[in-house]
Amino acid sequence: MLTIGVLALQGAVKEHLDHLNALPQIRGVAVKKAADLAPVAGLILPGGESTAMGKLLREFLLSRAILDRIQEGMPVWGTCAGMILLARTIAGQETGYLGVMDICVRRNAYGSQLDSFSTEALIPAVSAAPVPLVFIRAPYVEEAGADVTVLAKVDGHIVAVEQDHMLATAFHPELTDDLSFHRYFAAKAAAWNVLKTNL
């Protein structure tokens, strides 16, 4: 059984856990403190409010612990606000949060809650079938570094990226019935777990 954590400070935690627990041989667990990271082979940073989540990361002394695990090679996936937490640069903001992905993101790029929308896209790296995409006050990637792979664009804007063992999506796969992205991320976590075990 492979354990994957979901940062459980704020946001769409239950939905991610439900999707993880729907996958065979995967156990989703809530991560609220640094000690909760010990058993996990991957970590999801969920959607929510990035400013509040960044503040809570500091208050709960989680930033350093998460950064240490990412630097070890642990896969991490940020959805919506989670993408903002991972970004090296945030447009119009002087400082970032974890700052590990070589991307510049724009917060609330699609406008307010009223400008939320759904669509679908073919993302070959993740699924052979079109994947439903739900955007809620979503960011998008304005710039991506040379080491960043663009997985998906919507209306010319970058909405899914990958860099080494890090994944970020502007949309919310956990708010659909589709398990493609969770299955894709679980495979990354499983590969790292095998590598780590064999070291």
From TrEMBL:
Gene Ontology biological process terms in this record: L-glutamine catabolic process; pyridoxal phosphate biosynthetic process; pyridoxine metabolic process
Keywords, in A-Z order: Glutamine amidotransferase, Hydrolase, Lyase, Pyridoxal phosphate, Transferase
InterPro entries: Class_I_gatase-like (IPR029062), PdxT/SNO (IPR002161), PdxT/SNO_CS (IPR021196)
Reactions the enzyme catalyzes: aldehydo-D-ribose 5-phosphate + D-glyceraldehyde 3-phosphate + L-glutamine = pyridoxal 5'-phosphate + L-glutamate + phosphate + 3 H2O + H(+); L-glutamine + H2O = L-glutamate + NH4(+)
PROSITE patterns in alphabetical order: GATASE_TYPE_1 (PS51273), PDXT_SNO_1 (PS01236), PDXT_SNO_2 (PS51130)
Residue numbers annotated as active site: C80, H172, E174
E.C. numbers: 4.3.3.6, 3.5.1.2
SUPFAM superfamilies documented for this protein: Class I glutamine amidotransferase-like
Tree of life domain: Bacteria
Residues that bind L-glutamine: G48, E49, S50, R107, I136, R137
Family of this protein: Belongs to the glutaminase PdxT/SNO family.
Function: Catalyzes the hydrolysis of glutamine to glutamate and ammonia as part of the biosynthesis of pyridoxal 5'-phosphate. The resulting ammonia molecule is channeled to the active site of PdxS.
Subunit annotation: In the presence of PdxS, forms a dodecamer of heterodimers. Only shows activity in the heterodimer.
PANTHER family: PYRIDOXAL 5'-PHOSPHATE SYNTHASE SUBUNIT SNO, PYRIDOXAL 5'-PHOSPHATE SYNTHASE SUBUNIT SNO1-RELATED
NCBIfam families assigned: PLP_synth_Pdx2 (TIGR03800)
Name under which the protein is recorded: Pyridoxal 5'-phosphate synthase subunit PdxT
Gene name in the database record: pdxT
